[in-house]
Amino acid sequence: MKKLLPLLLFISVTVATPLSAQSNQEVARQMEQYINQVQQQWQIPGMAVSLVKNGEMFYSKGFGTKEFGKNVPVDGNTVFQVGSVSKSFTAAVIASLVDEGKLSWQDTVKNILPDFRMYDRWVEENLQVKDIMTHHTGLQGQLGTYIGNMGYNRDDIYNMFRLLKPTYSFRGGYEYNNITFIIAARIIEKLTGKSWEENVRERIFHPLGMASSTLNGEGFAAAKNVAVPHSVSYENSVLKIDPLYGEEQALHWLTAIGPAGSVSSSVNDMAKYISFLLAKGKVGDRQVISENQMNYMRIGHTITSQDSAKVTMYGHCWFIEQNSRYRVYFHTGSTWGFTAICAFIPEIDAGIMVLVNCDQPAEARYALMRRFIDIYKGFPEKDYSTESFDKWMDSNRKSTEAQAKKEAETVKEAAPAYNLLAGTYNKDYLFGKAVVTLENGELYITCGPKGWKSKLKHVNGNKFDFRMDGNSFDISFQLDKEGTKCISLDINFGYTENFGPWPKVS
């Protein structure tokens, strides 16, 4: 045994030794093989991946097509929406303002924005800038996310915060929210006299040379080398992929959600961003954001999940996962028909960007991130994609069967007479009015500041739904006891932000 021990130790060390910097070509070869598998397995129409090591992008490639059914290949410069990875750009702008002494992370929002209102007045007075970045506001996760799909803009949503009831104690937990970043944009604009968009371009895009990157729905619509978004659904035990066109792309929503999710970019541009993150704010010889602030944004503030294998925290717009093998900083992104993941691993000075033109579940992105790290760390090969794909398909099969059973057991009720529902419903000055019209035997609703008109689809009894800007809204009508007069309607915005009935006025 004594003679065998040194040999066994040597083998153990050899297996665990990370690949050297000279092995980038081998990393690229293994990753490309796995990317092809993931794309085929999850039926992804088009995607792009870039890999960074030691401050340089050593791999960039597009896979598949920009639009399902068309032979228009994706390349490294093809523009995709990066979704919530955008939050880190907003945090970076805030960090640059801290560098300039214009604010601190501990400043209260109210001192910067005197017109700021929240449902809880104590929270309103004490909410700090860092609370926005770390999702400590007390608002339910994703609360308000779909308000923009009815045509409301950032100013409208900002004025609605006073109506949103908290669902947990202030700083009492972590609840991921998008619309709170509208507050961050207001702070940036107040302190600089420039729009959030101008600040992102001047403070991030331009210094980093991110020439293909753009902002908001207008920027995405104007991009030339751009991917088409696709929806993914589970039907008859298979994945169904459909391209999204027109209002189904939800480009107004993209602009409204702006500082939380409206950056569009290519993997080539995002590789520059990853290099900037790994270099702690430095681009070439220029320190764009101080190392001190870049380090601060890497600090975890809230545990978002933990088990025996790992702990994941949320910092200033980065998830920080610490497991027994490594630490990785990452953020995913999802919009209408696009998904993304941006990750960097300081201990190996490497990072990966994945952009996908369909709203696949996060498991496909995570599989690529984890395989990339495993290769560099010299860990045994593991097929994360197949493992998660099989579980996801089985889960969807079970939920589809359960939904079909529930629908079969639901007692169907007739709709009220359509002529009773037609009329004008007035909410208040924040929401305006909704007009329901009866046209050729069909009901339509016109509502929101844009005056968009949508067809009402009967669901059951007095319940209907309609689509606007790519999103489906449930709506119900309340009749009097006799059922001869409609009193009000109620629109469900998606979560607990039920703003109450819209009284019928005519």
Please give a structural write-up.
With 506 residues, this protein is α+β, with helices and mostly antiparallel strands. The chain folds into 2 domains: 18-397, 3-Layer(aba) Sandwich (Beta-lactamase); 418-503, Lipocalin, CATH 2.40.128. It is built from 16 helices and 24 strands. It has an 8-stranded antiparallel β-sheet, with helices on both faces. Strands 20-21-22-23-24 form a 5-stranded antiparallel β-sheet, with no helix packed on it. Helix 2 packs antiparallel against helix 14, helix 10 (216-222) packs across helix 11 (251-257) and helix 14 packs antiparallel against helix 15 (384-409). The longest helix is centred in the last third of the chain and has 26 residues, at 384-409.
Fold topology:
Layout (H helix, E strand, L loop, with lengths): L3 H13 L7 H18 L4 E8 L2 E9 L15 E2 L4 H14 L9 H4 L8 H6 L2 H5 L20 H7 L20 H12 L3 H13 L5 E2 H7 L7 E6 L2 E6 L7 H7 L5 E3 L1 H12 L3 E2 L2 E2 L3 H6 L5 E5 L3 E5 L4 E5 L3 E9 L2 E8 L4 E7 L6 H15 L6 H26 L8 H4 L1 E6 L3 E8 L2 E6 L4 E4 L1 E4 L2 E6 L2 E9 L6 E7 L9 E2 L3
Antiparallel strand pairs: 1-2, 1-15, 3-7, 4-7, 5-6, 8-9, 10-11, 11-12, 12-13, 13-14, 14-15, 16-17, 17-18, 18-19, 20-21, 21-22, 22-23, 23-24
Helix pairs in contact: 2-14, 3-8, 3-9, 10-11, 14-15
CATH architecture name of the largest domain = 3-Layer(aba) Sandwich
CATH fold type of the largest domain? Beta-lactamase
- How much helix is in the residues? 25-40%
CATH class of the largest domain: Alpha Beta
The tally of strands reads 24
For the sheet with most strands, the description reads: 8 strands, antiparallel
Regarding quaternary structure, how should these chains be classified?
Answer: single chain
The pLDDT mean sits at 93
Low-confidence stretches: 1-16
C-alpha termini separation: 93 Å
Strand order in space, largest sheet: 2-1-15-14-13-12-11-10
